[in-house]
Amino acid sequence: GVPSRREYPRRRVKADPYPSADEYLEELYEKAWKDAGWGIVLLCTGSTERLTPDLVECPQGRVPKQLPDRSTSAEGRPIHAMLVANATPHKFHHPPALQPKHRQVARKAVWWARRHPGIECRLAKLDVRKAFKWHHIRPQDAGDFGSALPGAAVGVKGRIKMVYAGMPFG
After folding, report:
1. SS3 sequence, 107-169?
2. 158/39 Cα distance (integer angstroms)
3. Is residue 7 within 8 Å of residue 86, measured between CB atoms?
4. What pLDDT, on the 0 to 100 scale, is given for residue 94?
5. 152: which residues sit within 8 A by CB, 6+ positions away?
6. CA–CA separation, 79 vs 102, rounded Å?
7. Which one of 29, 84, 138, 156 is most buried, by most CB atoms within 10 A?
8. Does residue 84 have a pLDDT over 80?
9. Is pLDDT of 93 > 70?
10. Cα 24 to Cα 65: distance, rounded to the nearest angstrom
């Protein structure tokens, strides 16, 4: 899995959601439930506190989704703000999310065009559903990718913690 590249000992951090999430807790829970169905997130109640003594919670927020024509959708996109987890490490030590460089894409396109002359080559920039979420987190680093929401929105007393087994963004 993807390492968190932590350079210091993990300590318990609790975080409340941003105000942008307060009005949309049900929507955020729906998305978290879908992720739980894919095995990307583990949902825990307050009774599991002893099992997650050093969970680093990141505040959650919500922004409206942009449609391909740049208009805004009624559906939102959850924000997983890893400010605490990313506070001290150097930027080059963050989990890798490499993309090919333009010249690499051009070289591959030319290679295919020369290999199959006369066939039109088309390139598309598409959004792959759950692209980053398919990148699993190294099990011992899952405690760096936590979050919590108030349980009252779904009829649970206290807070519901989320421990991510896949990258929580994308």
Report:
1. HHHHHHHHHCCCCCCCCCCCCCCCCHHHCEECHHHHHHCEEEEEHHHHCCCCEEEEEECECCC
2. 23
3. no
4. 65
5. none
6. 28
7. 29
8. no
9. no
10. 13
